[in-house]
């Protein structure tokens, strides 16, 4: 599962201005609704439900909120570089500025897990994260997220 299969440049937001985890998830749910055709509230609710199980703030300034929706027919990814880091109750207690939302159909099963692993692998790369943080335009962020350097292949 490649990142380019999950998203288009329209699913990328550089310098998203939010002040809280809830506001970040609201804004990303709004964007996800435009892209998926699903209801903004349904997307927000599923992301918040997942956060209540435990934070998706995985550390190093990264969060990967995710959830499953019965109305989706494929996986969707959205990415935001936040203008200013926010408290996301991350496992390392560090503020978050890189947010990758992953939405999957209810029956996605292994595909959802493979996509989560792929996103996690991408964002564990410190060099990639530095490049993302040094970029302020959607197209450049998209290219960084979807490029396949040899070190990330298979």
Give the structure's gist in a few sentences.
The chain has helices at 21-36, 40-53, 110-124, 126-133, 138-146; strands at 12-16, 57-59, 62-63, 66-69, 76-86, 96-105. It is an alpha/beta fold and 154 residues long.
Q: Can you describe this structure?
A:
With 154 residues, the chain is an alpha/beta fold. The protein has one domain: Mannitol-specific EII, Chain A. It is 40% helix and 23% strand. It is built from five helices and six strands; from the N terminus they run E-H-H-E-E-E-E-E-H-H-H. It has helices at residues 21-36, 40-53, 110-124, 126-133, 138-146; strands spanning 12-16, 57-59, 62-63, 66-69, 76-86, 96-105. Strands 1, 2, 3, 4, 5 and 6 form a six-stranded mixed beta sheet that branches. Strand 2 (57-59) and strand 3 form a beta hairpin. Helix 1 crosses helix 2. It is globular, with a radius of gyration of 14 Å. It starts with 11 loop residues before the first strand and ends in an 8-residue tail after the last helix. Residues 150-154 have low confidence and may be disordered.
